[in-house]
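Figure 6 in text form: structure in, sequence out.
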């Protein structure tokens, strides 16, 4: 097979290797498409924290494909199925795993595409227990976005919004636009998306937003005006920008819920603990997606409640990996989700 191999910061090559045959409980998947996100860019640039990467590595944690072979003890009917798959290689036995939070596994961080071979290759071999089968008619290209959608689903589950709530989403990337759709399905009284610029206003409204506000419309330091401050029952932050968590907290009403999913770089504006206590804000955080969030995202995708194809703006080959990484970090509003195809 052909695979992208990142040997270290800024250094990658294409390698021709034999696919790894599936062992006990494993499956070999023929990769259809693989998405890139900011964490892949960090891996390539060498800015990802050392405990969250192991060089050399084949990146790729957002992917879709078809099961080609199954190892011993794997259900034979899985062969030929369209699938997506979880990335976290949890131990299944520690207290956190048994509580249903495998992304907090105390055995240590281990994830496809960062510490294990990822999907920027012709094939991927992984534990079959991590696979989520898709309907036969599923669009495999669109399905490659189900990993970020699962993270959004985890945020939406944490938000626990109910029908009639006033809801806001901060961030108009893949996380924000998939969270928006899942929240829209819950019949909010109001659904606002705060994005970067006006370029995605039309798409946001097509995917369920009642209104769209660009960051330039916010005041100095990301402060919303008086008509928005403290207005929303639930706010989901997905941008990971320096001021986005602060902006999101300002939008939440007294006693409301704030869910943080974006991971900003050092030096971001912090939350005021006095404000959190006095307004009794319920602050929740998301890192990765547990199995129930994956199941939620896959079901929503299969039933048409979640549309990911409109988020795909660029496609590149494995040979164009470096170009694809630059697109992800370009800041160009015309770039949303970039896919690599073997």
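Output sequence:
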């Amino acid at each position: 097979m052909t695979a992208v191999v990142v040997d270290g910061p800024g250094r990658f090559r294409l390698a021709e290797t034999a696919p790894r045959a599936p062992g006990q409980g494993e499956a070999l998947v023929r990769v259809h498409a693989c998405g890139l996100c900011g964490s892949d860019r960090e891996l390539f640039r060498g800015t990802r924290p050392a405990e969250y990467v192991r060089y050399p590595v084949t990146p790729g944690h957002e992917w879709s494909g078809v099961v080609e072979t199954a190892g011993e003890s794997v259900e034979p009917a899985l062969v030929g199925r369209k699938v997506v798959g979880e990335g976290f290689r949890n131990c299944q036995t520690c207290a956190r795993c048994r509580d249903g939070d495998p992304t907090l596994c105390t055995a240590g961080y281990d994830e496809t595409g960062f510490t294990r071979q990822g999907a920027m290759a012709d094939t991927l071999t992984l534990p079959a227990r991590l696979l989520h089968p898709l309907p036969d008619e599923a669009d495999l290209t669109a399905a490659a976005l189900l990993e970020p959608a699962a993270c959004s689903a985890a945020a939406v589950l944490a938000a626990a919004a109910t029908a009639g709530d006033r809801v806001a989403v901060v961030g108009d990337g893949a996380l924000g636009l998939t969270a928006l759709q899942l929240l829209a399905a819950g019949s909010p009284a109001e659904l606002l998306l705060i994005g970067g610029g006006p370029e995605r206003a039309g798409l946001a409204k097509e995917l369920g937003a009642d209104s769209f506000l660009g960051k330039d419309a916010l005041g100095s330091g990301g402060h919303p005006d008086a008509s928005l401050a403290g207005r929303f029952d639930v706010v989901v932050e997905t941008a990971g920008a320096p001021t986005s968590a602060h902006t999101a907290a300002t939008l939440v009403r007294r006693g409301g819920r704030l869910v943080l999913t974006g991971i900003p770089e050092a030096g971001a504006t912090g939350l005021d603990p006095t404000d959190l206590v006095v307004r009794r804000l319920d602050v929740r955080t998301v890192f990765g997606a547990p199995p129930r969030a994956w199941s939620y995202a896959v079901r929503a995708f299969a039933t048409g409640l979640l549309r990911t194809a409109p988020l795909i703006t660029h496609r590149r080959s494995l040979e164009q990996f470096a170009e694809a990484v630059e697109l992800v970090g370009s800041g160009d509003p015309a770039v949303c989700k970039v896919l690599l195809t073997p």
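Caption detail: The chain has two domains: 2-145+308-341, 151-285.
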